[in-house]
Amino acid sequence: MARYASFKSKVLKLVLGVLVFSSIAILINVWVTTTKTGQSQVVDALSVGQGVLQQVFANRESQLVNSAQVLTDDFGFKQAVATRDNATINSVLNNHGARIEADVMALLSLDGSLLSTTINLQPNNTDASIISNEKLAEVLSSGGSTFWTVIEGSLYQSILLTVDAPRPIAIALVGFKVDEQLLQSFDEITQLNTTIELVSSNQALDDVEPFAISTLPELHHNYDSDALDLGFSLFAMGISENTYISRKFELSDTNYSPISITLSANVEAVFNTFKQLQTSIFVIALGSIALALIFGMMLSSSLTRPLSRLAEITRKIAEGAYEDLDTDRHGIYEVNQLTTSFKKMQTNVQHRENKIRFQAQHDLITGLFNRAHIGELLAEKLRSNESFQVVGIRIRSIRQLNDTFGQQNVDIYLAELATSLRKLGGLAARLSSSEFMWVCPQTNSNTLQGIHQHLEHNISINNLGIKPRLSLVALDCPRDADEPLTLFKRLNIVFEQADKTHKEYLHFSASYEEKYTKRLDIIHHLKVALSDINSELSMVYQPKMHISTNSVTKVEALIRWNSQALGFVPPDEFIDIAEQANLINQLTRWVIKRVVLDVKEMHEQGHRVCAAINLSAKDIMQADLLPWILIQLTQLNLPVTALSFELTESDLVSDADTAAQHLQEFRDAGFHLAIDDFGTGYSSLAYLQKLPVSDIKIDKSFVLNLAINEADQKIVTSIIALAKSFNMEVVAEGIEDVTSLHLLQEYGCDWAQGYYICKPIPLEALLSWLEPHSINTLEHQL
User: Fold this and answer.
1) Domain at 362-491+499-507: CATH architecture
2) Long-range interactions of 160-163: CB distance < 8 A, separation 24+
3) What pTM, to 2 d.p., does this model score?
C-alpha cells in the first residue's frame, strides 16, 4: 500500500527546501567568490614580491659592480697589488668593504688563489680556490662577472673584476651576504616567506650538496600558485596555518651559479578574513534554517491541525457518525471557509444518507420495509430467540389488475393495503410486486382468517371498485424457520401450495417443503437426463388397433423415467414440472429424436407404423419446431406419415387463434393431428371447426366404465357423431374389456387403445408383439 507524506511534512519540506537551497547557493557563491578573491590577492602579492626581490637583487648587483669598479680603479690599490703589499691590500679591502657595507672583500691571484680576504676562513680552506677554472677564464676574458658562492656555509652575491695595471694582475671580489636577516627584511617588505636555493654551492667541488635558506617553518604545505583552481577554493575552508601558496622563479640562470627563489604566502593569514565571512554566513544560514524550521512547524501546525481535525470528521462522516463543527475557532480565513463548507457538506450528506437509507430500506410506493431490510429485522428477532408469527400476503393475478385498472390505480390500492397492515401493528414489508409480509406482535390475537377479512375488502379509487383476491400463509418462528433465508424460502413454498390448492389461507407444513425439495431434485436430475440420448429416460409404445380390421398400424409414444437417484418418476409428475421449469421444449425434442430412431428401426423390421407424440401448447408455439422435425425425418429418410401428434384440448384454448395457425402448418406439412382427452375441456363446435385437427381421442374417463354406465355411452356416441360430422376419425383410449370394444365398434369408432389390447411396452417387446397384428401398409388408413 502506498504511503503518502502529510501536509505538515510537505509544508516543512517546502519551506526548508527553499531556504536550504537559497542558503547553500549563497554559501557556495560567497565561498567561491571570497576564495577566488583570496587567490587573486595571493597571486598579486606573489607577483609584487617577485618584482621587489628581483629589483632588490638587481640593485645589489649594480652596487657590487660600482663598488668593485671603484676598488679596482684605485691607483694605490693597484700599486699595492702589483707590489704585493699585503698590509696595504688588507687595509684597502677592509676600508672599502666597510664603506660600501660589503660582507666579503677578497683579492685573488690570476690562478684563483686567495691572496687576501676580510673574512676568517677555516684552516683547511685558506689555500683553496673559491672559483672554478671556468669562472676564472670567464673573468679574465671579459674583465669581470657576477658570482654566487657559498663561503664558510654562507651564501654571497658577489662580483669579480680584474685589477688591471694595465694588464690583469689580480682579481678583486666584492660580495653581499644572503642570510636569514636579509630574508626577514624581505618578508617584512613583501609580507611573504622567502626561500633561496643554490644549485651548486661551489663550482670547484662537484660533490658539494645544494644550498638553501628559507624563512618558512619546518612543517608546512606548499601549493603552486600557477596550479590554483576551484578545487583549492573548496579546500580553502579547511586550510591550516601551515598551508602556503608559493611561486618559484629563477634569479640567475648562469651556468655557474643558478639561483631559484620561492615566495610563499601564508594561506591562513590571507583567507582568515574570508573564512570569518564564510563562517558568519554559514552560521546565519543555519540560524535561518532553524528559525524557518520553527516558524514552518508553527505555520504547518496552524494549517494541519484544523485540516487533521477536518480529516478526522470526514472519516467519521464516512463511518456514519456526525458531529457539530466550530467554524469560528481558527485564525485562518481559508480554513474557516473550508470548515464551513465541510459543515454544509456534512448536513447535506447526512440528509442524503437518511434519504438513501430510507430508500434502501423501504418500498417507495407503500412506504413499508423492503425485502432486504425486513430480513435484517427478522434476523435480529431470531438471534434474540423471540417467538413470533410471520404472515405472507399475496395478491392474486396482479397482472390482470394492472391491465384492468391501470398501474396508477393499483399503486394507490397497494398504498391502502399497506395502511391496513400498519393498523395491525407489528412489522410490515413489501417483498415483491404482489407479495407482502406482516410480522405479528406477540400480543396480537387475530386469526389468519380474521386478518384475511381485514385486508380483503373493496376499495374505491377514482370511482373504481377494486377488491383483489388475497392468499395468506403463516409460519411460526423459530419453530418453522430459524433464519431469514429459510423463512423466505418456506414462505414461497406455502404460497405455491396455496395456489395449487386454491386456498385463501394456509399454515406451513413440513410436507410442503418435501414436495418442493422433490420438485427441485426432479428438475436437476431431469436436466442431466436430457443431456444424453441414451440416458435414464426411455420410450414405451401403446398400440392403437383399427377396430374394423383388427390391425395395428399406429402406436402412441409415451415417455418413462427410471432415475437412479429418484426411482420411477410418473410421467404426469415430471412433465408438469418440466412445463413449469421451461424444460418442456427440451424434453419434447428429446422424445421426438428418440421416437424417430425407434420408428426407423420399426420400418427396417417391416412394420410401417405411425407413432403419435404428445405436444404441449408451448411446443406448438415454437416456430422452429416444425422445420426441426422435418430435418430429423429427412436425415433418417422417413416420410412425414411416420409421425403424428396429439395435443391436450385444455392447453390449446388459452390462445386458440395462434395455436390454429401453427397447427395448420403441421397439417400442410402432411402430419395428422389429434385432440387428446377430448370431452374434459372446453369442447365446442366452433372450437373443432377452428382447429385443423384430423382425429379426436375420447378421454379414458368416459371409456373405462362404458360397458355399465349409460351416461358415458351417451357422451361417447355424441362425441363420435360430432367427429363424423367434421370428417374426423375417433380414437377411444382406456379400453379394458371386450364389451367396451364391441360397443365402440357398434358406435362407429375407428381406433381402440387400452390395456385390453396392449399395455405400453418398450421397443423390443413392441416389435415382437407387432408380428401377428400389423400390416405392411398405411395407405388405406390415412
Assistant:
1) 2-Layer Sandwich (3.30)
2) 160/68, 160/108, 160/131, 160/135, 161/68, 161/69, 161/71, 161/72, 162/72, 163/72, 163/77, 163/78, 163/81, 163/107
3) 0.53
